[in-house]
Amino acid sequence: MSKIPSAPLSAIRDILVGTAVEGEGEPASAAIAYGLSLAKAAGAHLTVQSASWRLSGDDAWLGDFDAEGAAFIDRRLDALARSIANRSGGEAAQAGVVCTTETPGLPYPEIVSRLARQARLYDLTILDAGSRTYDLDRERIEKTLFVSGRPVIAVPPGADVFAARRIVLAWDGSAQAARAANAAMPFLRSTERVAIVCVAEPEDLYASVSGAEFAPHLVRHGVNVTVVDVPGTDGIAETLRNQGRMLRADMIVMGAYRHAPLREFFFGGVTRSLLRGSPAPLFLAH
User: Fold this and answer.
1) Range of the domain at 205
2) Which family does this protein fall into (predicted)?
């Protein structure tokens, strides 16, 4: 077993990383490297689910693929998924991290559903965000958040080493923001500095709890807190991006999808905007 570190990261006992192989020549998964780094820091058990997107079936979009051609592609994707799993297991062993690997080969909707259900069994799930297949990444993140009831860390390309020296806590006074802060408490307690960045849309201010009101709760948990009130003149997502860069944040904690998904689709949304481009991994809770 991995050595259990001192609190607060010791509260994280198991981590799930989910990837899906969709073709050859894909960039390496930042989520796997980040998850391994976090599991080592926390002394947590790591599970890597390296799934392959099975093309076999009666899907109309397969077009000109015959059964033999689809089966060949299936075998290639299965081999790639196993290679990723084997490499991840080897790297975990070298790092002294207990690691389980899974290589399911399923049609894409079943990969997403299986991952979301499995996420209920772990303290948190780590997923890639913002790759060339952004829409598929976003679907995995959204479904895992809504179905599992567990937090997700969405890792942008290149953020392949866990760090939490400086954390931005996006605060708008909502229940989702409070839930995210509570779920992220192991990280907030372990960091050198948490900046509560307060941005709210004007129509939501009447129902908000201010960042200054929320700060004493974190202080009582031993968190080193500063409160930053910023106008959202450039939009909430861009404001948070700018604050994350300026404060050199290693992580941004936020409540995800405060509005219903349908409204998010038509009117944009802070969560989706940040998933398209974030200066740091996003810790999301819904």
Assistant:
1) 166-285
2) Belongs to the universal stress protein A family.
CA–CA gap between residue 269 and residue 138 (Å, rounded): 13
229: CATH = 3.40.50.620
In this structure, the strands spanning 282-285 and 152-155 are antiparallel
> Which of 191, 186, 141, 181 lies closest to 17 in space, CA to CA?
141
pTM for the structure as a whole:
0.89
Residue 203 above 60 pLDDT?
no
- What Cα–Cα distance (Å) separates residue 135 from each residue in 125, 159, 255, 272? 18, 19, 20, 10
Q: What's the confidence (pLDDT) of residue 63?
A: 52
Among 82, 108, 85, residue whose Cα is nearest residue 17: 85
> Which residues are within 8 A (CB) of 218 and not within 5 positions of it... i.e. 6 or more apart?
181, 188, 194, 196, 225
